[in-house]
Design goal:
The structure is a homodimer.
Chain A (H helix, E strand, L loop, with lengths): L6 H20 L7 E2 L8 E8 L3 H12 L4 E5 L6 H5 L4 E2 L5 H5 L6 H11 L6 H9 L1 H10 L21 E2 L9 H4 L6 E2 L8 H15 L3 E4 L1 E8 L5 E8 L2 E13 L8 H7 L1 H4 L3 E2 L8 H8 L4 E2 L4 E3 L13 E3 L13 H11 L5 E4 L14 E5 L2 H8 L5 H14 L21 E5 L8 E4 L2 E2 L6 E3 L5 E7 L17 H17 L6
Parallel strand pairs in A: 1-8, 2-3, 2-10, 3-7, 10-21, 11-18
Antiparallel strand pairs in A: 4-6, 5-6, 8-9, 9-10, 12-19, 13-18, 14-15, 15-17, 16-17, 20-21
Helix pairs in contact in A: 2-9, 2-16, 5-6
Chain lengths: ~500, ~500
C-alpha cells in the first residue's frame, strides 16, 4: 500500500490524546467499593446523588427533583455539560413528534422501532428500544417543556443542518437494507442555534432547568467509590473535593451518569480494541470510565463493552457518494449512501480498520476537504489499483461489475440509491484513505453498566444493586453497534436519564 | 434464498440446549458477594479453594498442592473433568518442545509468538502470549511429567489426528496471511489415545495427579458467592452442598476455574450475541458463567466478553478446499484453507452469520457428511446462483475472477495454498450452507475475569482483589477472536491454571 500521513488528523489526535492524558493524571484514583466500610460521619446528605452533568445527569436531576427529592449533582470537570455539550445535540425522536407533525412528516412508532431493532446488530436491547420509541413523541414534548427550542424547518441534506432546520434524516433510514425494513422518516431533532452548537444549546436549557429546580450543583468533585451497607445497599459515595475525601450520603439513590471511557486509552485497549486505532477519541475529556469502574467495583455487570461508534464522514458533499468504497480485497462492502456510522462500523469492526474511497472525474472532492487524505490519482482504474498495491485485477473487476449494473440503474450488491448511482466514467480517478487511523474518524464508547429500563444497575446474576442507578454512556443503553443514526446516543441519555432520576427518587416512570 | 433445514444440526442443538436448560435450572442461585458478611463459623477450612475441575482447576490444584498448600477442589457436576474432558485435549505448544525436537520439527519462540500475536485480532493480550510461548517447551515437559502420554508421530492432515499421531498443524499457520508473519510449525500436541479421546486422556492424567497429591475433591458442590472481609480481602466462599449452605474458609486464596458461559443462554445473548445463533453451544453443561459472575459480584472486571470461537468444520476431506466460500454478496472473504476457527469467526462475527461453500465436480463432499446441508445443485454457476437467490451476476463474476487467476496458479485476494488452488471446472456445481445456525457450528466463549499473568483477578481500576484468582475460560486468557488454532484454549487452561494455583498458594511462578 502506498503510505500517507494525514497531518491534520495527526494533529487532532495528538491534541485530543494530550488532553486525555492530562485529565487522567488529574483524576484522583478511584477505587473498588469497600464492603461495609460505612464512614463514621457523612460530610453531606442528599436524597439523590447524580454523578455527571451531561444530558443523562441533567435529565436525571430534573426528574428526581420534580419527584420531590433533594438532589445533589456533582461534576469532575470545572464546567457542566459533559460530552453532550460538545455534540451536535441531536435527539433521535419519532413516531409522530410535534415537530414531525408540524412539518407534515408521517412516522409511526412501529416504523421507528423496526428500524432501530432491525439495524442495531444481533440481539439488540429490545425492551429499551420499544419503550424509547413508544414514548418518543412525549419525550420530545418534554424537551420542549424544558426550554429546548426547535425551528419548524425540514432539512434536505443528510448531514447536521446548519441553517435553522431542526429536523433531518440523521441516519441510515433511506439506505439499503433499512428502507426495506421500515418506512423512512426524518427523526434527527436538532435544537435551534447557530452552526454546530446544538449540544451547547441543549445543555444550556437542561442545566438552566436543573438550577431553576434548586438542585445543588458542584463542579470539580471527583467520584471515588460507592459506600455500601453490609446488606448490599448503596448508602452514598466517597468523593474527592479539593484533594480531601468527603462522604456524601444519598438517602434514596446514586445515579452514575459520568459518560463513557473513550479517553481512557487503557480501557479502550482492553475492552474496545476496534476503536483503539480510530484517529479521534470523541467526547469530553471526562470520558474516563470512572462511573463504569465504580459500578463494577460495587458488583455491577457491564455489557457491550467492545461496542461504540466510529464515524467515517464520507459526505458532504453528497456528490462523493457516486464513488465506491472498497476494502483491502478491492471489494465493495456497504451501500456508500448509508449513514456514516454504519460505514465506520463496517470499516472499524469488520474490515480491520481499512478502506478506500474511489472517485472519478465527476465525484471528486473539493480541494479543501481534509476528512481523509488522497492517496493516489491515475488515468485508469488499473493504474490507480497498482499505485494502491491492490490485489492484481481486483479493483478493475469490482469496477467493471459495478459499472455494468450502474448503467442499468442497478446495484445488485448493496442497492445504492438511484440518486447516487452511475458508472465511474472518466479520469482522473482518485483514491482516498478512509482507514480509521488515517482519516478523521471520531470514536466513542457504548459499553456500560447493565441496567433495567429504569436505570437500576444489575449484577452478573441480573439482580438489582439496591440504590444504584446509571444512565447515558455509563450504562449499556439503547445505542449499539453499528451506530445507525445521529441522535440515538444523546436521545438515550435524555430519555433513560429521566427514568433513572425518577426511579432513584423512588417514583417509577410510566 | 432457498431455505433448508439441517435436521441433524437441529437435533444436536435441541439435545444440547436441553441439557443446558436442565443444568441451569438445577443450579442453586448464586449471588453477589455480601460485603463484610463474615460468617459466624466456617464449615470447612483449606489454604487454597479451587472451583472447577477442568484443565485449569486441575492444573491449579496440582501446583498449589506442590507448593505446600492444603487444597480443596470443588466441582458442581457429578463428574470431574469439565469441558476439557470433552475436548480433543490438544495443547498448543511450540518453540522447540521435546516432541517437536524428537520429530525433527524446527520451531522458535519468536515464530510462535509472532503467529499468535499477529493473528489474534486487535490489541491481543501480549504479556500472556509472550510468557506462554517462552515457557512452552517447559510446560510441555510438565504435562509429560504429570503422566500425559504422547506418541512420537507427526500427522500430515489438518484435522485432529486419530491414528496415534501426537503432533499436527492444528491452526492457521500455513494459511495466508499467517505464513507471511512467521515460519509455520506444527504445534498441536495431542495426548495418545484412541480416536477423539484426547481430552479424556489429558484429564485422567491430571486428575490422577491431583488425587495422588492428596488434594480434597468434592463433586456436586455449587459455588454461591465469595465471602469478603471488610478490607476487601477474599476470605472464602459460600457454597451449596446437598441443598445446604456451607462456608469454606480459604486461608490463602480462591481460584475460580469453573469454565465459560456458553450454556447460559441469557449471558450469551447479552454479552456474546454473535455466538447466540451458533447451532452447537460447545462445552460441558457446567459452562454457566457462575465463576465469572461470582467474580463480578466481588468487584472484578470482565474482559472480551463478546469473544469466543465459532468453528465451521469445512474439512476433512481436504479436497473440499478446492471449492470457494462466499458471503451474501457472493464475494470470497477468507482463504478457504485457513483454520476453521478463523473461517467460523469471519462468518459469525463479520458476515452476519451467513456463508456458502461452492463446489464443483471434483470438490464435492462425500454423501455421508452432515456438517453442513446442501442447498442447491446445478449445471452452471448462473443456475446455482439463481437457486440461491444471490445478487444478479455476482457469483458468476466471483467465479470468473477466481478461475482466471487459479488457471495461473494465483489467488490474488486470499492466497489459497497451491495445493488446493484450481479453477472450478465442471458440473455438477453444488452450494452448501455454512451459516452458523444451519451448519454444525460449535461455539464457546472466551470472555472472563480480568487477570494478571499470575491469575490475580483485577478490578476495573486494575487493582488486584486480594486472595482472588481465576484461570481457564473463567478468565480472559490467551484465546482471543479469531480463534487461530486448536489447543490454545486447553493450552491456556493448563499453563495459566498452574500459575494461578502457584500464586494462590503464595508462591510466584518463574
Amino acid at each position: 500500500m502506498a503510505s500517507s500521513v494525514d497531518h491534520a488528523g495527526l494533529k487532532r489526535r495528538q491534541l485530543l490524546a494530550g488532553l486525555g492524558v492530562a485529565s487522567a493524571a488529574g483524576l484522583a484514583a478511584a477505587v473498588r467499593a469497600q464492603p461495609g466500610a460505612q464512614p463514621g460521619a457523612w460530610d453531606m446528605t442528599t436524597d439523590v446523588l447524580v454523578v455527571g452533568s451531561g444530558a443523562a445527569g441533567a435529565s436525571a436531576a430534573i426528574e428526581a427533583s420534580q419527584a420531590g427529592a433533594a438532589v445533589l449533582l456533582i461534576e469532575s470537570l470545572p464546567r457542566f455539560g459533559g460530552s453532550s455539550a460538545m455534540s451536535a445535540g441531536v435527539v433521535y425522536a419519532g413516531g409522530g413528534t410535534a415537530l414531525q407533525r408540524a412539518l407534515g412528516v408521517r412516522d409511526s412508532v412501529e416504523a421507528m422501532s423496526a428500524f432501530i431493532a432491525g439495524m442495531s446488530g444481533p440481539q439488540p436491547p429490545l425492551e429499551k428500544i420499544q419503550l424509547y420509541c413508544e414514548q418518543s413523541p412525549a419525550h420530545f414534548d418534554w424537551l420542549v417543556g424544558q426550554g429546548v427550542r426547535y425551528g419548524e424547518k425540514l432539512a434536505t441534506a443528510m448531514s447536521v443542518p446548519l441553517d435553522g432546520e431542526s429536523l433531518y434524516f440523521s441516519g441510515a433510514e433511506r439506505a439499503w437494507p433499512a428502507r426495506e425494513l421500515a418506512a423512512p422518516a426524518p427523526r434527527g431533532h436538532v435544537p435551534l442555534g447557530p452552526g454546530m452548537t446544538g449540544g451547547r444549546t441543549l445543555m444550556e436549557a437542561l442545566l438552566a432547568r436543573v438550577r431553576a429546580l434548586g438542585v445543588s450543583m458542584l463542579s470539580g468533585i471527583e467520584a471515588r467509590r460507592l459506600v455500601v451497607a453490609r446488606d448490599g445497599r448503596i448508602l452514598g459515595m466517597e468523593v474527592s473535593m479539593n484533594g480531601e475525601r468527603k462522604n456524601i450520603r444519598a438517602r434514596r439513590g446514586v445515579v452514575l451518569a459520568s459518560g463513557g471511557f473513550i479517553h481512557n486509552r487503557e480501557m479502550v485497549r482492553l475492552y474496545a480494541p476496534h476503536l483503539y486505532e480510530c484517529s479521534v477519541p470523541w467526547g469530553n475529556i471526562g470520558d474516563q470510565g470512572v462511573g463504569i469502574n465504580i459500578g463494577i467495583g460495587a458488583g455491577a455487570a457491564a455489557l457491550r463493552m467492545h461496542q461504540g461508534f466510529a464515524i467515517v464522514p464520507l459526505y458532504p458533499p453528497e456528490s462523493v457518494l457516486a464513488g465506491i468504497v472498497v476494502n483491502a480485497a478491492a471489494q465493495r462492502f456497504v451501500p456508500e449512501d448509508t449513514y456514516y456510522g454504519v460505514l465506520g462500523d463496517a470499516i472499524a469492526y469488520h474490515q480491520q480498520g481499512r478502506a478506500w474511497l474511489i472517485t472519478d472525474r465527476d465525484s471528486h472532492l473539493p480541494p479543501q476537504q481534509d476528512n481523509f487524505p488522497q492517496l493516489a490519482q491515475a488515468n485508469t482504474i488499473g493504474d490507480l489499483a497498482e499505485q494502491l498495491g491492490f490485489p492484481r485485477g481486483a479493483l478493475q473487476h469490482t469496477v467493471a461489475y459495478y459499472n455494468r449494473n450502474a448503467l442499468n440503474g442497478e446495484d445488485p450488491l448493496f442497492h445504492k440509491s438511484p440518486a447516487y448511482l452511475r458508472p465511474l466514467q472518466g479520469p482522473p480517478y482518485r483514491a482516498w484513505n478512509l482507514s480509521v487511523d488515517q482519516a478523521f474518524v471520531p470514536a466513542h464508547t457504548f459499553g456500560g453498566l447493565h441496567t433495567t429500563v429504569d436505570g437500576q444497575v444489575l449484577d452478573g446474576f441480573g439482580e438489582a444493586i439496591p440504590g444504584l442507578y446509571a444512565a447515558g454512556r455509563t450504562a449499556a443503553g439503547l445505542p449499539a453497534a453499528p451506530y445507525i443514526a445521529s441522535g440515538l446516543s444523546v436521545g438515550d441519555c435524555t430519555f433513560f436519564g429521566r427514568r433513572a432520576g425518577l426511579a432513584a427518587a423512588g417514583r417509577s416512570a410510566a
